[in-house]
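Handout, section B. The chain below has 142 residues.
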Amino acid sequence: MYEIIIKSPADLSRAAEEFLGLMDDRTVYAFNGEMGAGKTTFISALVRALGVPEEEATSSPTFAIVNEYRSDTTAELIYHFDLYRIENLEQAFDIGIEDYLDSGALCLIEWPDRIDDILPDDTVRVDIDILPDGSRKLTVND
């Protein structure tokens, strides 16, 4: 377990770089946190740190369910999922979730509880909590 504290929005870039230092060859990262905890905001900072241009990394995939990015520095494919609107596994299968998870590309998933039964065993789980002072705590459970 590893913790990263994000004191303010200005601290996001540093936190994303710190998170990058923890990443290994695993490709599926499941981000849990209540509505408004900052899952999308942190993932946007993370994909920018991975080399995705800022103008591409700022939109939430809430309505599209998945956004596809490609790093300008590594040419790596990155998928950002917001599964909030997924109501059951059947809907996830309809969007081809298994193909994404098995692709070898980096998969960053918000609301992963919607597909918990099919997440790979080596999924890295990240909890984002709002602290009393408004800062955020990321707990990386690998």
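Note. The mean pLDDT is 94. Compare this with the example in section A.
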